[in-house]
């Protein structure tokens, strides 16, 4: 007997048929004698619609009250949790739905991107043991204890709910069921020759996720690493009846580095189009300028990523280029413009049609020249690199968004990641 957390994402619960299919996946594990907690997302498209309604309800103000945003968007998961509990009962399985405040899942009060502080799994564990009851938990939401208000964990947050629940109930495994059958060398929807990885190290998955691969929310990987949760990414689209609960289904295990025998230099490629570039032209090259630029951005809670500084065309001053999330682009421009007097520059330029392509692999620690190969390969395809950042196990390149797919495909082949047949 094992204790499992099974998480099902939006497309896996997109309609009633799919929810009934999920119920059969759960039944398979219950019938095999396992104790099961299920974490569900909102039905596909529902969260987007709820976010859209929040925006539409606003006329006079620019930003809505994040507490009310959470009150609205948290409802999507509640519907799925109740429906799945009904579908399970229909199959003769004891099941009960749980919202964030009921367990509770306690979080910080940063509405819209709250962090989980504590999950109380005592009651669901008692019910596993006493009633063989399946817990169906609404993902993405929690409770801020002091104010008693509902919070949400940021887009894709049900992954994090699942891993946090797995840590709390000391589950043997956290299975993340989604619309692909594992973690691939890059997004399989973009590169058809992407290969599924049997295993990937936590550190690499952390980079992949934070650099754009949305298959897992970054925070879920962090929590998995911290609490040693075995996360297994697999498909919900296999027929439940075809799966041997004691066999080895296709999927990807996120695990410690030492569990991986075959270490490749490059493990995967991530990309993100949610980037914007800002260039501040002809800044005085003197101490304190960087602080004058990045201080106000930090105060405005804007994350600056890649930073490049080079000599301006006049040879005397300097140009500073950096990237921010596309969603913060206008705010960042406004913030810089407001600080113009203290910074002292002549022109402010920006672009949103840029993309960041990142190459990731723990093997890079011990291999030199990996990035140089990429520069050459992209130059051969006339892809201009606007900015570069590197760290121990990854490097990122900022390019024109129009070349994203070409760049990803080029690098995927360059590092030997292509599947033998398309
Ligand atoms: P869910 O609704 O189940 O949470 P998501 O849409 O959040 O699913 O994440 C799954 C998607 O992540 C896949 O459909 C795929 O397009 C995308 N994806 C991006 N990069 C990768 C990758 N390296 N491996 C697998 N899937 C990836
Ligand atoms: N429903 C939420 C979202 O769409 C959370 C999730 O699916 O993980 O972002
Ligand atoms: Mg997701």
Entry keywords:
18 strands; alpha/beta; 422 residues; binds aspartic acid; binds magnesium ion; binds adenosine-5'-diphosphate
Structure report:
- Helices cover 33% and strands 26% of the residues.
- With 422 residues, the protein is an alpha/beta fold.
- It is built from 13 helices and 18 strands.
- The structure holds adenosine-5'-diphosphate, aspartic acid and magnesium ion.
- The site of adenosine-5'-diphosphate has 20 residues, from loops.
- Adenosine-5'-diphosphate binds next to loops.
| Terminus-to-terminus distance | 40 Å
What is the helix content?
25-40%
Shape type: globular
Mean pLDDT across residues: 95
Number of helices: 13
Total DSSP E strands? 18
Give the bound compounds: adenosine-5'-diphosphate, aspartic acid, magnesium ion
Neighbour order of strands in the largest sheet: 3-6-2-1-9-11-12-10
Largest sheet: 8 strands, mixed
Which stretches of 5+ consecutive residues score pLDDT under 50? none
The assigned structural class equals: alpha/beta
Share of residues in strands: 25-35%
Radius of gyration: 23 Å
